[in-house]
Amino acid sequence: MLIFFAARAGAYTVPYEMWMGTFVGDSKVGWMSLNIEANEYEGIKGYKIATVVNNHLTVLGAEMTQLVVTTCYTDLKYAPLAEELSMSSGGKTTTVKSKFGKRSIECEMSAGSGNSTMSIPIPEGTPLTADPIFTTSDVFPEVGKEYEMRYFNPLTMALEDLKIKVEAREKLTVDGNEHDTVRLRNVTPLGTMTVWQEADGAVLQVDGMMGIRMLRMSRMEATADVKDTGDLAILTSAASSRPIDNPRDVKHMEAVVVGLDDEAMLISDARQKASQAEPQTAPPSASFKVTASRFDAAKAALLPISSAELAAYLKPTPPYIDSGEESIVRNAAEIVGNETNSYRVCSKIRAWIYGNLKVDAKIGITRSGSDVLKSKVGVCRDYAILFASLARAAKIPTKVVSGLIYTDGAFYYHAWVECYVGKWVPFDATLASDFVDATHIKLAEGDATTMFSLARVIGSLKVEVKEAR
User: Is 152:83 a contact under the CB 8 Å cutoff?
Assistant: First the structure.
């Protein structure tokens, strides 16, 4: 998991080193280090900035370790020249190598199996920062001041907005010592963080997404053994106001999601109706009505399906949905056989994934469909990415969907797919049936990278179930 926070690059004395411990509640789960040193990259003088994030968590009963290493090369003004990212977990590694030009970012990414390349245009006049760690050169910015810039997110392979507001000057006590700090509010597409920094740029504390907190400490303290936190999936689940009997059979559900104020997550379609709850309360809430039904296969479109409006959901979208990769194409053809009914093809793909993959939560990174196919292990996001890869290879428009599902007494964050078979129909390869019950609440849809948007709300929601039948 990457936790970005904004700092004032101009305040640092180079070489610079910083260590922080990472906590969930009162339990220590890992550490982060930051090192800055003078460097020359391809003849350009500047800096080499290295960050390492190491976390150890329990997820769905499995012990999971994540190691994220980022090395960024900048000029003397901290404008990015090149960046290398490596994310490792459960024996799998995702890497991104990026080179920044005047008009584009040239990227090479490996998400477990094979490499993909991408060229990302840089709009003219766009101010880029090497990383959300670096923002302004102000030594101690004025309260109320706001900054806007863009940074390259190697997870989503996109330029994203970073907005920073200087909220207050505060006294912050750490280990019994009082510090003069400035409190910053940093807003990114992945969520909002609150950061406390001293005048010299040193970060004292970060309150991030999913209940994650980072505290400055010595290297010895930061790298000390982690403590048992309990299961992160359970800790961040959305509590349900009441139990739901036989959730996999629920055909209609009405619920209020408390704490949801992101309009982009209020998705309405033929299956789901979403709106801001009325009257509005604190915290803000959203109302959802979900109706699930079984699709009549006789009404399905025949293959191949082609439409300009659906083109985005038919093509590969590397690095995750690699539907053009040889092993994906070959396996899709074997699964489909001579079937031309699009719904029945989706049913065969769901049954094949359900029967051939095993749940393994030790792998805490997002991987390509071909890598999931090779390993045949993963969690819901891996099942969904493989499904989308195989279905698109079979010429069926498919999007990755993420949100909430009710199970074991609470709503958990989950991923599945929707396929266009004459209409958009959901499929969940973690289930033994083609029927996708109404406790599935959709909060994001599209490419696999849309799943990352749930980081904005994970750990902050509750669900009041009004009706489930």
Answer: yes
Tokens (6 digits) for 461: 């929601």
Q: How many whole angstroms separate alpha carbon 410 and alpha carbon 461?
A: 11
Helices and strands in the chain, H and E counts: 6, 25
> Residue-wise over 208-229: b if at least 16 C-beta within 10 A, else e?
bbbbbbbbbbeeeebeeebeeb
DSSP letter string over 158-179?
EEEEEEEEEEEEEEEEETTEEE
| pLDDT value for 4 | 42
Distance between CA 395 and CA 53 in Å, rounded? 39
Q: Which long-range contacts (CB under 8 A, 24 or more apart) does 22-25 make?
A: 22/53, 22/55, 22/212, 22/213, 22/214, 23/212, 23/213, 23/214, 23/215, 24/57, 24/210, 24/211, 24/212, 24/213, 24/229, 24/232, 24/235, 25/211, 25/229, 25/235
Beta carbons within 8 Å of 364's beta carbon, 6+ residues apart: 1, 57, 59, 64, 65, 66, 89, 90
CB neighbourhood size of 245 (10 A): 8
Neighbours of 80 (CB within 10 A): 22
Q: How far from 100 is each of 79, 82, 104, 106, CA to CA, in Å?
A: 9, 6, 6, 7
Of the candidates 119, 114, 122, the one whose C-alpha atom is nearest the C-alpha of residue 95 is 114
The token duo for 18 is 């910083």
Q: What are 67's strand-pairing partners? A: 54, 88
Largest CA distance in the chain: 72
- The pLDDT value recorded for residue 8 is 47
Residue 136: the pLDDT is 46
- Which positions ≥6 away from 91 have C-beta within 8 Å? 363
pLDDT at res. 189 = 86
pLDDT the model gives residue 113: 65
pLDDT tens profile 245-275: 999 999 999 999 999 989 999 999 999 999 9
Task: Name residues of the chain where pLDDT drops below 50.
Answer: 1-8, 133-137
Rounded distance, CA 442 to CA 399, Å? 12
Task: Record the pTM.
Answer: 0.91
Helix axes 380-393, 326-336, angle to 10 degrees: 80
CA distance 446 to 399: 5
Contact in structure between 84 and 94 (CB atoms under 8 Å): no
Q: Which two tokens stand for residue 261?
A: 């104020």
How far apart CA 292 and CA 272 sit, in angstroms, is: 9
How far is it, in rounded angstroms, from Cα 354 to Cα 153? 32
Using CB atoms within 10 Å of the CB of residue 255, give its burial: 0 to 12 exposed, 13 to 18 middle, 19+ buried: buried
Count of beta carbons in the 10 Å neighbourhood of residue 82: 17
